[in-house]
Structures are given as C-alpha cells and as structure tokens.
Amino acid sequence: MLRIDCPWCGPRDETEFRYGGQADVFYPEDPSSLDDAAWAEYVFVRGNPKGWFAERWVHVAGCRRWFNTERHTVTYEFREAAP
Amino acid sequence: MTADSLTARRRSPLCHLADQLAAAGSPGAVRLAELPFQTLVEVRCGGADSLHASRPGLGASADSHAAVIGRLADIVGLPFPRRVGEVAGAGSRHVLWLGPDWWLASGPPEPCPDPGLEAELAGRLRSAAACQASVVDLSAHFTTLELSGPRARAVLAHGCSLDLHPRAFGAGRCAQTMVAKAQAVLHQVAEIPAASYRILVRASFADYFARWLLDAMLEYTTADGEAVGGSRGIAHRGYTQ
Ligand SMILES: [Zn+2]
C-alpha cells in the first residue's frame, strides 16, 4: 500500500486515490493544424522514465481534488505534491 | 400527502438493526447507535479554494481566504471552519470541512420533505448579492452512526488507516476517508474517554457498514452484553480496561 500526500488532506492510503496519468500534457493550442502523427503523439504517447515522474492524482475518497505530484517509478517515493 | 404524515412514515436506513446496535458492545467499552434523520446540508463556494490558507506557497493570501470564509459565515449565519479537517459550531449544529471549497452543515432531525436548515441557508445566500455558493440538502444521502466509549477509537482502527490518536485527531476534527472500505465522513465529537465519533455513511452502505461495526465490536463486548445479545454463537473475550 502506498501512502500518498494529498496537498489538502495530508498522507492517506493509496486506495483513497485514482491515477490520472502523466502531468503537464496540454491540449494542442491550434488543434486544426495537427496531422495524424502529431495527434497520436498527443493522445497516446507518454513518458516512461526510470526515476521521477510528474503525475496527476485525484483524492476521490477525500476532498475530491486533482493535484500534481512526483512519483519515483523505482522506489515509489512521492514528493512535491501541489494543488 | 402532508409533511406530518411523511415524517411519521419515514424509516431510517438502520431501523431494522436498532436492537442489535443497542445490544452491541458494553457501556464501559464502546456503544453504537444510529442517529437517524440528521439534517445535512452541503455548502459549496467556488473560488474559495484558490485562496485557501493551507495551500502551499500561498500563505500570503491566507487573509483573503479568511475574508471569503468569514463573509460566507456571516451570510449563512453559521460559524465556518477555517482549516483542513476542522469542525466549527457546537451543540447540535456543526459545519464540517470536506474540501477547500466544500462544507457540510449538520443539525438535528427536521420534518421532511423540506428541511428548514436548507431553506434557511439558501434564503440567506439568495438574498446576499454576488455570493457564488450552492446549498443542497443531503439529509437522505447519509445516515449517521454514533460510536462512543473509551474503546471507540480501537474499534475504528480495525478498518480505518487514519491516525486517530489525540496527537493527530481529536474533538472538533473531521475527515472524509475510507472506513472498512466504505467512504465515510468521520467526525469526532468528544475526547476520550467520553469519546464519541459520528460516522456518516451513504444510506445504501449503512447495512453493510453497521454489520461490519457490530463484528468489530465483538471483542469489546462483555459477558453482560452477551446476555443481552443472546445467540451470537461465538466465544466472546471479556473486555478488560
Ligand atoms: Zn484530499
């Protein structure tokens, strides 16, 4: 069981959260200019680092807030949670 | 149908377990009861969160957040908690912190179908200009269980991973969390040893959750409690302080 720091509620069990994937994946500024390859990149391609990874999580069983945090994909440490 | 006859006909989610709840535990250890038909009104105020005092890096705006909450409290006419997990108010009326822009006002039972608390809060908000807040009656969404006694915290620890030790949690604190895998709002009303927790669970979870609590309370049940309960069919360990 991971312990995840909610920036509002503090440390809670992993089961209170849902995962939201990689953080900072922004909708294209000019969608009509994208070709298929660029759309595929936006929709499907995500980072897969060995180490720190910026992610979105939502505290569904608590304050129901989305927040960004960093998780270490090897050690499962969390750090720098922010709303 | 008149409000009187509706109020007389309503049944609480745990009325079928009232005898078992009353027989469980023992007065010196832990007691369980349903507090049926509590009036619960959700208050949400968009934008309050962006000014929240506990938001990292935004300490400077703590004053403006306090001002927003203070204004809301003035309009609504109830004290509002200013911090994460706090409960404001006393006696029978409380306001619980559920999220940075999200509160739950609770009060004693009122006649259905239109609780006066909701109408009162909504009326006050409507008459206040430029206050973007919503008020929704959630009384029938939850039922409230009251778990009290010196072993109440130990019973909750069977299924709740929150640190409920007095150094981290106490009277006047609340949390939305999982208890026995069910989403619950936990509100500590009084300190140990009179300790009393109010646990709000969805009406549809109430039967499962109350039976889970009855099971968790077995080991704190005395021989006297056993005699009241009668036929549970398992050996009880006597409770010792
Ligand atoms: Zn939270």
Descriptive keywords:
heterodimer; A: 83 residues; mainly beta; Folate-binding fold; 1 helix; 6 strands; 11% helix; 39% strand; B: 241 residues; alpha+beta; Gyrase A, domain 2; Alpha-Beta Plaits; 2 domains; five-stranded antiparallel sheet; 7 helices; 10 strands; globular; disordered C terminus; binds zinc ion
Describe the structure.
The complex is a heterodimer of chains A (83) and B (241). With 83 residues, chain A is mostly beta strands. Chain A has a single domain, classed as Folate-binding fold (2-Layer Sandwich). Chain A has one helix and six strands, in the order βββαβββ. Chain A is elongated. Chain B starts with a helix and ends in a 12-residue tail after the last helix. Chain B has two domains: 15-37 and 141-229, 2-Layer Sandwich (Gyrase A, domain 2); 39-137, Heterotetrameric sarcosine oxidase (Alpha-Beta Plaits, 2-Layer Sandwich). Chain B is an alpha+beta fold. Chain B is globular. The model of chain B is unreliable at 51-60 and 225-241 (pLDDT under 50). Chain B is built from seven helices and ten strands. In chain B, the strands form two sheets. In chain B, strands 1-7-10-9-8 form a five-stranded antiparallel β-sheet. The longest helix of chain B has 15 residues, at 62-76. At the A-B interface, strand 2 of A face strand 8 of B. The complex binds zinc ion. Residues 6, 8-9, 59, 62-63, 65 of chain A line the site of zinc ion (ZN).
- Largest beta sheet of chain B: what is the strand line-up? 1-7-10-9-8
Given the C-alpha coordinates, what overall shape of chain A results?
elongated
- CATH topology of chain A, which one? Folate-binding fold
Q: Choose one word for the global shape of chain B.
A: globular
Count of runs of 4 or more consecutive helical residues of chain B: 7
Could you provide a short overview of the structure?
The complex is a heterodimer of chains A (83) and B (241). Chain A is mainly beta. Chain A has one helix at 36-44, and strands at residues 3-6, 10-13, 18-22, 52-58, 66-72, 78-82.
